[in-house]
Amino acid sequence: MKKVQQGFTLIELMIVVAIIGILAAIAIPAYQDYIARSQVTRVVGELSALKTAAEELLMRGAGGTTQLDDATDLGYNTSNLLNGAPTVTSTNAGVVSIVGTLGGNAAAAVSGATVTIARNAAGTWTCTVDGSGASSWKASYVPAGCTNS
Asked: Which pTM was predicted?
């Protein structure tokens, strides 16, 4: 009578563990980059949501007033990815700047980066991300539609 093999040999198990280790070494950094990019994109979206309220107040002639210079008055809700409320500044000429600094629960790679949503006097909005304050910033973290400074 022949003996039937039962289970796996040690070398087969070691090969499986090595393959899992190689896959993890590739997947974990890719996942961390994905998280960092998504957090920057989320902050850009949260700050961009304030543009509509800012435009409305500008149309009512509130440029350069404290009403337009308060993020809470523009409808800002707290974010666990920002260091406090964003800073909003405006002038009578219709120039508005909304600046938020990533921190709080943001990934270490993007913590300290600054997102600026700005409106010029002609009414054009721009988005700029400055990663110089982040520990390990990569240009690939900047979302589409924004520029890296």
From this structure: 0.85
